[in-house]
Request: fold
Amino acid sequence: MSFQLGLDTGGTFTDAVVIDEHQTVIASAKSLTTHHDLIQGLRGAVSAVLAQCPAEPISLVALSTTLATNALVEGHGRRVALILIGYSEQQMQRARLSEALGNDLHVFIEGGHRSDGQPATRLDTNAIKAFVSAHADDVDAFAVSSMFSVRNPEHEREAQQVIESLCQKPISCGHTLSSGLDAPRRALTALLNARLIPMIGHLLDAASELLSERSIDAPLMIVKGDGSLIHANVARQAPVETILSGPAASVVGAQFLLAHHGHAEANVVVSDMGGTTTDIAVLEAGIPKLDPNGATVGGWRTMVQAVAVRTFGLGGDSHIQFNREARQFSIGPLRVLPLSRLALQFDQCVPILQQQLEHGWVRTHDAQFALLRAEVPSGITGQQKELCAALANGPVALQTVFKDQTLDRALNALVQRGIVQIAAFTPTDACLVLDRVDSGDKQAAVLGAKLQARYASENLGPTFEQASDFAGHIQQRVAEQSAMSILETLLQSPEGRQKSPYGVPKTGLSKTQQDLLRSTFAQSMGALQLSARIQQPIVALGAPVAAYYPQCAELLNTTAIVNEHASVANALGAVVGTVRQQVCITLSPAGGKRVRVHDDSGPQIFDALEEAAAYATQRARELAVQRATDAGADQVDVTVERVDNTVEDNGNIVFFGSEITASAMGRPAHIAEASAAS
Reply:
C-alpha cells in the first residue's frame, strides 16, 4: 500500500494529513507556521503526522499555501522592476497598474506588436540593457510585458534573453502567464508574479529540504488557484499561479468531504477561515466554478485562472483596533501576531502589558509590539536600519518605538516588506480569554483585552466590566462580519445578481445595503424585526471556525457543517487533487479566405479555416500534453473544444475568429506508477 502526504502552509498554522491509496484519512496534525524559517513549521507538522502512522512508502507530497494570497492582501512582496514594451503612459492607469507598482521601478521600451501579431516597431534592446545594468542590484526580480505578446511573444523572449545576459535575477514574462488579451492586466499579473518568486521559492526550498531529511522520494506538487496541481519546479517560475492556492485547496477539500459523506451533489457555501483571510466559494451540485474574470485578490484583478472565491481580510489573527470616529472596533484586514502567541516566545511581554495597564492614562499604541520577522536585507534606509537594530534583541512596545515619531514611515515600510511584524490583540486572543482555545499565554490575552476595553471606554465607545465581556463582544463581531461576507458573496455572484431585486453591483454593496443587512443581526429593533436567511448550509473550514460559525449560521438562519477534518481541509484538498493544464490557440482572419493562427511560435497563415483549425487543434493537444507532463502528470487525457465566431451574410459565412482550447488532465506520476504496480 502507498500513502500520500498533504501539506498546507497558512498564515498561522501549517497542516499535514496522510491518506492511503483508497483516499481514507489516516492521520492529521498541525504546527505553527514559522515565517522566519518555514521549514520549522513544516517539520513540526510532518513529524507529528508521521508519528501517528507508518506511512511508507509515500508516493506523493502535495502542498497548498495561503502565503501568496496573504502577501497580496497585506501588500507585501519583494522589490521588482517592470519593463513595459510598446505601452503608453495612459495604459498605466488601467488595471490600477500605477497603483500596483507603488515605489517599484518601471520603464517604457519601444517595441511590441499589433493585433495581427506583426511588429509595431523594432524592439529597443539597447534601452533594456541600459535599464537592467542600472537597476539589477536594486531589485529581486524583473517582470516583462509587451503589447499583444499573446499574439506574438518574440519581443518578450528577446527582452528575457537580454536580461539573462546581464544578471541572474528571476524574470516573469506576461505571455507565459496568460493567453488572454488585456495588456495592462497581463502586465499586472507579471508584476505580481515577479514579486512572489522569492517568497514561494523559499517555501518550496523548505519543503524539498524536509523531504530530503525524511528520505521521502516522491514528487512535490503545489496547488494552483484553480484547484489543480503543478510540480514544484513549474511553480517556482510561475508562483502567481498559486494565488488562491489555499482557498482552492479548501474548496477541493470541501468537495471531497461532502462526497465521502454522501453529499456529492450538494449546494453549499464553503467558508474557510484562516489566520489572515476568510475565503468563500459556492458549490453548485457539488462542483466549484472557475472565475471567468480571473482571480481577484487584495483588490488586484489578475489573469490567473482560479476558482470563483471571494477573499475577505478576516481571520483568527486579524488586527483588532478601536475606530474613534465610528466608536466601534474594526477587525482586519491586517494580520498581526496574537499577543498570547508572542508572550509564549518572549517573557518580557507580559510585564510590559502589566505596566501599560497600571498607567493612569490610555495611549494609542498600548498592547502593540513590533518584532523582526525576517533577515534584514541590504538597501534599506538609515531610519529602517535604526529600527531593525532596536528590534534585534526581541519585540519592542510600539509606544516605545513611537517616542520618535519620525520612525512611523520606516516601520510601515518594513511591515509592508514583511521584514517587521506587528503583534497586537486578535480574535485568537479573544477565544483564549473565553477558553475556546487552549494554546497561548492567557494572561497576555486577558491584559490585552483589558487595555483594549479601557481604550474604547475612554474614547466614548462601549464599556465592558470584565475582559470576558469584551472578548464575547469581539466573538460576536467576528460572527457578524463572517455572516456579512457570506451575504455579500451570494448577492454579488452572477446568480445572486440575477435573482436579487436589489441589483447589487460587482463593485460591492453600498453603505445603505450594508446597513440594511447588518440590521438583520440586531437583537431588537422595536416593532420592526428584520432577518436574513440563506438557502444553502455553510461548510465551515479552518481552525477558528468552531468559535464563530455556529453563531454565524444562526444569524443567517441556516446550519453550519463542521467536519472532523475541517481544520485540515486545505491539506486534504491538496493531496486529492489532479494535474490539469489548458492551452488556448486563437485564429483570426488574414484576408480573403486565409486564416492566421497565433500559437507560441508566432503567427502562421493558412489558406483555409479548416486547414488552420486542424493545425491549431493538433498543436494545442501537443502543448497541453507537454505542459501536463511537465507539471507532473501521467496517463494524460485530453479534450479539445472549438468555438467559432462566424456570421451568415446572404448565404456566405463570414469568419471573425476562433478559439481552440485543449485541456489535459492526469494523475500525478508516482500515484499512477503505484496504481499500475498494484
